[in-house]
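Lab meeting minutes (informal)
Scribe: AK
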Amino acid sequence: MQDFNWKKLQNGSDIRGVAVDGVPNEPVNLTPEIVQLLGQAFTAWLAQKLSKPTTDLQMAVGRDSRISGPVLMQGVMDGMAALGASVYDVGMASTPAMFMSTVTPGFECDGAIMMTASHLPFNRNGLKFFTAQGGLGKQDISEILALAEQNNFPKDAPAGTITARDFISTYAEQLVHKIRTAVNHPHSFEQPLKGLKIIVDAGNGAGGFYASKVLEPLGADTTGSQFLDPDGMFPNHIPNPENSAAMASICQAVLTNKADFGIIFDTDVDRSAAVDHQGQELNRNRLIALISAIVLQEHQGSTIVTDSITSDGLTQFIEQTLQGNHHRFKRGYKNVITEAVRLNQTGEESWLEDGTYRQRDMREYYFIDDGDNLVSKILIELANANQAGRSLTDLIAPLKEPQESREIRIKIGVDEFKPYGENVIQQLQIFVAQQADWSLVPNNYEGIRVSCSSPVEDGWFLLRLSLHDPVLPLNIESNIAGGVAKISNRLLDFFDTIESLDLSAFA
């Protein structure tokens, strides 16, 4: 273990690694031995944070459907129990559920772990960590990895217990109760979704429970739901709502089954997306707009925090139609969560943040990546709209969407890519100042965002430096056909003057 690279396991505020052999150039680095040490490290770290002996800790561990899940989960639990902790084995679960195990009466665990690699391929796995304060941060994960590397745990601690408990049913009952109470249907309190056909695509991940344990008790017809059975090889499509094939599949399922609504989850249910009754994806701007409309009905004037590449039409919808405040911030869902928390701490109410188009977190749910609570929020509005004889999407009818959009990833061909990329952005700022119909957008927290007012462009672009890779992502949107090409061609003239940039993505 002396030569093991523990730092390589860190992925921001998560731990991820290769758990299954067989994929070329991807050697296994997440083994039962490794995760056992991680279970011990989390237990020791938490005991120190809470000023409690490890023998007084109550922990919970769950997993998604990955084939490596059972053996790795056992390793984690064995590590926790080796330090005397009492451990709940909750089996198949979701990421939002594992957080809720720390705050649900009757459980109220000191800490919880979800074994998942989110939407990554079948050979990967990982760990997400929670306390009653929410998900752990990047620095917390670094500290846990350091403890695992030191492996300086007591060898004579009294053994803890591992007890199987069905938490996902308890969690599902919470969702059912929330929807029933919020809708408060005058004639069908117990089944406010009766008469609605709602189908679920779980992608063979952990989200199949939502159809049987949430929708059906609420009266929904779930006929046509697909890929509900857990299968860690993910034989039908990539379990990721951002995957075009996955979205096409749920859209078609809605049309084929003449459903009123469609839901798709990623593997661990921290991401979700939706489809309307016409088989149209509620995507990007439309989904942010819909959730914003719902949130701002309850919390007037709230700030909606999104990442930097959201559209101008969304800003207009939030601020002019909904009378809220739209606050763009740096990409990266943790950046956006941190900013939303900061705004709340300074007295500026923020009840919704959107970090990656399909990860939308709400203050009422502790800003946890929470795909099933997000969907539940929409279902409440769907039930209310159905009672009133209107469509769910009537809420976002005024939303102006771009005619065209494109992302171009410009590779940087130098080793010290960060200062080089920052210099390119500075040079572009000078170039923009020389353009009569281009202007810098104020209050931009990442890269350079430019408004393009020419009648043949009518749009915007944003150039930023990737957080981790030698790449300058360039996002362009236009409100007219052909506008993106006009903007990109002008930018290409600028980039042609700069060395060490791979401009092949412009083709």
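Next up, CB showed the second protein from the same session:
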Amino acid sequence: MKSMRSRGVPMFFFVSAIMLSSLDLVANETLLAGAAKVDITDRDAGPVHDPLFAKALVLKVDHETAVLITVDAVAIGEIGHIGNDYLPAVRKQLLSEFNIDPKRVLANASHCHGVVCDDVLEKTIEAVRQAHARLEPVRLGVGTGHENEIMENRRLILKSGGTVDVRHAYSLPANEEVAEVGPVDPQIGLLRLDRLDGSTLAVIFNFACHPIQGVPGGRNTADLSGIAGTIIEENLGPDAIALFVQGCGGDINPVNYKDVDHPRSAVPLGQSLALNSLRALRKIECRPDKRLAVLHQTLTLPRADRTQRILELETEQERLISSLRGTSLNLETFMQLMVKYNLAGDFPSGFSHRYLREDDIAKDDLRQLDIENLRNMKAYLENIHTMEALTRLRTNLNLLRRHQLELEESGKRTIDVEMVGLRVGDFVLLTFPGELTVQIGLNLKTQSPHKPTFVAGYTNGYIYYAPTAEQLKNVGGAQEDSDCILAPDWQLQFERAALDLLKRL
């Protein structure tokens, strides 16, 4: 029998051909996936607690390719350190190199407040290149985890019917004014992609919470979502990539965000998110599944004219200022009286026997002093609460004025935004560029024909907050309601379009 080489054909040619044919056969039967991550931390921005990453997941079936990019950054354009040219440039390069349709490239920001490097664009493209070079057959599975202890709704509903939100920029209302808080979404959405040998190639985990807890010392950090991703990767294997996709966290804070008794740290929150993600991931059974679909739709949404709201806040500002009352106290004397009257509410201005002695001689000097002190204390405390309300109001007023100016300068009463539906097997993800408040995500999950359905904001651009129509009535002072460029009608238009798109996935 003659050898292959004796016939003038190298043996490796046939081996390679067989391998390629086998790969094509597998590719036609299942999904191909590749994942990678590249460090995008700005090392010149100060001390680093943990690195920030651009991560890429490339999915391919036959001639259909989709790319999901996740970035440890505050936003994809508009605010923060990533410019508005970032996403168009990424899409242009991927079209040039790999002929990937720009509409099938999704980029989600975790919304952490870490600082990324200046060449984040180049490093993002490098992450996609590496992921594309690593394409291999995978099996997949979908699941959900549960986490309800690391976050809280930052919208406080007041007994007056208004709302305020919990932020570092200003103080909270008095405890006795708060009636309830808004809802949270405890669901962790999960997609697991395993290689044919059973090892995990990549996971997507979707969760709704602002990753703004920070770490002691203010060091650069990817915050709770980045910490969770690292822990998941370390537990699933050295080559596993965990991509965090931010959900409808527009009004969701990490717990203890206003804590002044202990240094705030995202580490335990990230650990808890990772643990509950891993618990659910290990229960997922992965199977062959070649279903891959991306539906892209441009929505034209109404922009808000905030002229009337600005006038209302200006009037309220004047009312608050005019309500301030002069007192005989300053901070030092106020604090002294607060201690006295809280230590001995019945006899704050003297010992009990002094009051009894005055009763015997028909005098009430001490009790009259108490009346005067209490009156001044009440006025001083009301002034404090009024000034705190003014700080919240002025923040909102400045935001409204800025967005109104942008509206007038643009001359446009509408804005075009991207909405994308991604389906990978039974994993269904709907995306939107705004900071969706949690109720919108809950609405879509309830009404979607796919169970489960996952929702992401902060994707393919940034258009500030996207509260519900009810929240946009602005009866209170929640900042996200003023830091919004959308008119209330946007919600109905978006939810109708979203549900229609989900039905087509």
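CB comment: Confidence is low (pLDDT under 50) at residues 1-7, 11-27.
No objections, moving on.
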